[in-house]
Amino acid sequence: MPLTDMLLLVAAGFAAGGMNALAGGGTFFSFPALLATGLPPVTANATNAVALWPASLAGAWAARSTLRPLGRYLIPLLLAGLAGGLLGGLLLLAGGDDVFSLLIPWLLLLATALFAASPWLSRWLAARRQEALVPPHSPLSLVAHGLVSIYGGYFGAGMGILQLAAFSIEGHAYARANALKNLISAVIYSIATVTFLFAGRVSLVELAILLVGATVGGYVGGALSQKLPAAWLRAFVILVGTAMTVYYFGDTYGAW
Fold first, then answer.
1. How far apart are the C-alpha atoms of 77 and 177, rounded to whole Å?
2. By the 8 A CB rule, do 148 and 160 touch?
3. Which of 26, 29, 89 lies closest to 54 in space, CA to CA?
4. Going by fewer Cβ within 10 Å, which terminus of the chain is more open, N or C?
5. Cβ contacts of 29 within 8 Å, gap of 6 or more
6. What local confidence, expressed as pLDDT, does residue 89 receive?
7. Four-residue CA torsion sign, 53, 56, 62, 63
8. Coil, strand or helix at 13
9. Smallest Cα–Cα separation from 45: which of 103, 4, 2?
């Protein structure tokens, strides 16, 4: 691998890990960097998903005390996450690079829009939800969680925002909704990781370099999380997401 590609991945991993610790949106840095090194789109996406896997497991473990009282309530959600994550991963592999290449700009557009709208979406949901101790499952809610899980297994950027919205609408308080989001994300990334590794679509060298940068970036981001204005960080992520979206629309549909 050329030294320039190695440096790009280290820098992208550092930015992704730091931004995820500070404001979210790390995929906007890591995924385009993997594409820029010459990886096929599906391999780049699979490698990026595996890079996010350890963080999802850590988030689920940290939230275990909040989730433990829910008991059997979690089983349908876990099954929906498992089935949806597997189906999303299989759809990504079945569609191949050509289909995924056409969808990249649209997926980046959706992720950028979700990230930009998340503060307003959170306030809107908080003003309308009626918190319940353990809201009952409904077929509609399980279908919604399944669809979000399919999206997560296929691409994943912005998945957490969709999950928070779904759990908040059901009536969960924010702390528990966030804990549930972490758990289901861990399930989705776990099954997707196994699927991508089994299919041989993960580039281990690029993955290792990205993880080194992300680990250091996550540490630095955690240390700076109380010192940097969140609004500035969010604006920077939105700017990067918008720039990437515009670039890939032009690249995919021949504007340049």
1. 12
2. no
3. 26
4. C
5. 12, 15, 16, 19, 240
6. 93
7. negative
8. helix
9. 103
